[in-house]
Amino acid sequence: MTRRRTFFGSSLLLTAGVLVLTACAGSTEAGPPPSPQPVATSPTPTPSVTATTEPLGDPTCETIIPAATVEDFGSVGWTVRAEPFRIGEQELEGGVQCVWGDFTTATDHVQIYGWAPISAEAADDAQDELVALGWRVEESPEGLIVTESADTTVATDGDGYGLTYLFGDGWVKYADTKQGLLLVTWG
Question: Which residue, 35, 36, 88, 139, has most beta carbons within 10 Å?
Fold first, then answer.
């Protein structure tokens, strides 16, 4: 089986870095941090795919997203909390879900990324569970996208997507927005 690795243009990483730095810029005034503003990219970047034979090891919060993004998060004082990868009640062994943010203060301003291996049967069960909860499904060239209902989402990207899963051949990715999925490069 050939593993795929995704690479992104520097413009996507620059856009993500600007979003992180803009959203995290501190203020001397008391009050809640500013809400993140989605950065629209037009057209939506499409990751390029190349085959690789080098072993990937186990996914970690520092390896499922680009090293430059990890460095950018660190440069603004963000740290990560690793959690088991879950879809509803189902925990996917071998996966990781990562919540990046400034945990020294109470905030809901975080970034979420995840990756896990998944069997076809488990993927079908997870998709059925999400759809039963009101999530919507759409086909994409990269795989099957399952995203939360626009009626219940709290934060969205420039295209109106909130929490989103991308199911591929033997794997699933997760991010707090569909655009955020582009940063999950593992697999």
Answer: 36
Q: What is the mean pLDDT of residues 69-79?
A: 96
How do strand 136-140 and strand 110-117 relate by DSSP bridges?
Answer: unpaired
Q: pLDDT tens-digit profile of 112-164? A: 999 999 999 999 999 999 999 999 999 999 999 999 998 888 889 999 999 99
Q: Closest Cα partner for 17 from 62, 63, 66, 64?
A: 66
On whether the CB atoms of residues 162 and 176 are closer than 8 A, the answer is yes
Alpha carbon distance 152, 103 (integer Å): 25
Count of domains forming the chain: 1
Q: Which residues contact 133 (CB under 8 A, 6 or more apart)?
A: 88
**pTM greater than the 0.90 cutoff:** no
Residues pairing with 91 in the sheet: 86
Position 187 scores a pLDDT of 76
Return the half-sphere exposure (C-beta side, CA atoms, 13 A cut-off) of residue 23: 23
Within 10 angstroms of residue 17's Cβ, the number of other Cβ atoms is: 18
Residues in the chain: 187
Q: How far is the C-alpha of 161 from the C-alpha of 43, rounded, in Å? A: 15
Q: Which residue has the higher pLDDT, 22 or 93?
A: 93
